[in-house]
Amino acid sequence: MLVKLATRNLKLYDNLQAEAGFNFLLRKSGYVKIAKEEDAEVIERETRFLRKQGVEVELMQPEDVGLLFPDINVEAFSAASYFADGGVVFPWPVIWGLAKGCRKLGVRIYDYTPANVVVENRKVKGVKTPEGFHRADYVINAAGAWSNEVSREAGVDLNNRIVREEICVIESLKPYIDPYIIDISRGLYVSQSMRGEIVGGIVGEVNGINMKSSLDFLVRYARSVTQLIPKLRGLSVLRQWAGIYDVSRDNRPVAGFTNVEGFVQLNGFGRQGMSIGVAAGEELAKLLFGKRSLFGD
Ligand SMILES: Cc1cc2nc3c(=O)[nH]c(=O)nc-3n(C[C@H](O)[C@H](O)[C@H](O)COP(=O)(O)OP(=O)(O)OC[C@H]3O[C@@H](n4cnc5c(N)ncnc54)[C@H](O)[C@@H]3O)c2cc1C
Fold first, then answer.
1. Exposed (0-12), middle (13-18) or buried (19+): which is 259, by Cβ within 10 Å?
2. C-alpha of residue 18 to centroid of ligand 1, in Å
3. Distances (CA, A) of 297 to 35, 261, 291
4. What is the whole-number distance in angstroms between the Cα of residue 277 and the centre of ligand 1?
5. Of 84, 106, 155, 205, which has the fewest beta carbons less than 10 angstroms from its beta carbon?
6. Confidence of residue 195 (pLDDT cuts 50, 70, 90)
7. Which tens digits make up the pLDDT trace of 57-100?
8. Given ligand 1 and candidates 94, 269, 275, which is best to mutate, with the most ligand atoms within 8 Å of its CB?
């Protein structure tokens, strides 16, 4: 299911940029996954699985990665895979573009407006906001890391884990890191924005709702990223921040109807929301309109 969603999501990004008239800053310049010896099997197994699903991922030797990106320390890992159609998208332009497209279609979006779901006799009535009550037949809980709270309000159990992830930006260099690189052994990822800033972080840890940045992260990140790309030594950090996301218990999105009539889940995306979220929204729409969907009939 995740492969189908991710493949469809890439296509939707292409189509929706044109439809909304907004550039998502999507750059399909490849996705490289690397691992140390002890995790090589994970990459090999995943590549075999993806290829069976028709995704054109290739296994690579460290030296081949060195050809794609000469500054990488090929001694720092022993296995790699490469997905040429993968890449990087900027989350903010995606959200702004989708909002613009929705407004063009007549959707009303209330920015910065907290909503509380109102349920009576196990049936959704609508949402309460500071501006008043809005009647609704359906309320979709797409509240990310706050989905557990929204579910609790509706009287529905949801036990997603909340993960905090820290990330930072290093000063601009002439764009030269083409692919997105993720090292599954160190939990480290790095890419370069079109402005030349080097964006990278360490895959998050279970933490609860906490969006504070830490010095500990900066030290760990600096150590790992310079092991992998020694030329980054000595560059300045421009800014750092942290975000939170919710991970479902089975690592798949939580999507579909609940035992409260009209209360629908669409959350638990973990570290994959930017890769599958738009396609998941499309599948949920099919489900609500009674069509066949990856989330059921
Ligand atoms: C540092 C970092 C790096 C990441 N890297 C990647 C990556 O490389 N690839 C990838 O695919 N994903 C990545 N992710 C994960 C991705 O950002 C999430 O999967 C995605 O944002 C989830 O989308 P969502 O819409 O479900 O939740 P969110 O984006 O969290 O949106 C939920 C929204 O609901 C709002 N909300 C909550 N409660 C209420 C309420 N009661 N009323 C009204 N609004 C409410 C919140 O304010 C929020 O705006 C990363 C996340 C972080 C933090």
1. exposed
2. 24
3. 39, 16, 6
4. 10
5. 106
6. confident
7. 999 999 999 999 999 999 999 999 999 999 999 999 999 999 99
8. 269
Which CATH superfamily groups domain 113-159+252-288? FAD/NAD(P)-binding domain (3.50.50.60)
Confidence of residue 264 (pLDDT cuts 50, 70, 90): very high
Residues in the chain: 297
Arithmetic mean of pLDDT, 252-263? 97
* Type of residue numbered 49: F
Q: Which CATH architecture has domain 31-38+57-84+161-247?
A: 2-Layer Sandwich (3.30)
